[in-house]
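Review this:
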Amino acid sequence: MKVKPLLTILSLSLLSACAVKKPTQSAYGSFTDARDGQIYKTIKIGGHTWMAQNLNYKVDGATGYASDQADVKIYGQLYSFYAAQAAVPKGWHLPTAAEWDQLKADCPDLVNKLNIRFGGEYSAGEHMYLGSKATFYTSTHDGMPVITVYINKGDPALYNNRQGIGWQLSVRCVKDEIGSTVTKNYNAGADKIVKEKRKPANQNYGTFTDERDGQVYQTVKVGNQIWMAQNLNYKTDGAQYYGGDEANAKIYGRLYGFYAAQAAVPKGWHLPTAAEWEQLGQACPDLVNTLKISFGGEYGAGKFRYLEGMATFYTSTHDGTPLITMHIDKGDNTLRTNRQGIAWQLSVRCVKDQPAE
């Protein structure tokens, strides 16, 4: 009886079957957060370097599960949306929904590869799902609830969800790629990443001295308009520092009610209309860097909020309904329209009046 050929065929078949299962290309490393010295394990999958641990940097709007420091060492902090953006270290970013989808495609075994820890969630005064669910913020926010991703323990699938910005969730970060920017465009449920070389917008910087108090503001010419490249910081009734802290004014300027904003604008300048903001957004894709946007938050309903998470500006467009305002989320170069009441205290940028023709 000739058994050897049969064994050879079986051996070759097994080798072929095993050869189909190729491990995902990955390379582990580490990253030290210069802010607090914490060391995070990292992993390179495809063209991206991901943190292989949950972020654990302490900021306002972040907490350990049930405030237990023992859990923080295992699961990291739970962050609200704007706290998550503020906590991301320099050189890294909050991943888009598309980047999570790409990770899922590149790495079927992402639970083990990324060392996923099931740190649960926090909302409405309740901690939940510790040890059974890992939920992460994406940076994809189109005015509706933010797109989040989650993994249930025992199920390797990555699912999409939508949750409000007040939910506190885990955070993973992706390393920025040198020489490129990532812009997010939300369209029909698909988050597209467009990578392009850094090209400075046509710009011409200068300065303006406010003769009322001697403050000097940097300015920038974009298209045919000259904008302040700093938030207004003129003292007037109806304006205040974020948190009542004067040190914040040096960085973020003051927060103004609508009428206070109009009163504070210096002679020869004006509060921009919604149309002027929209024109600026079209003429200047790299708005955050060109206008040196500082994320000074806002004040309303008795609360300061979103410092280093969001920049919100008044427009002069007021049609009897709540005012049109403009906001930019940190980590997202998109200029978005909103409507807020005149009592909200927001940041102010001014545009130079153009001489009459």
Summary: The first strand starts at residue 26 and ends at 32.
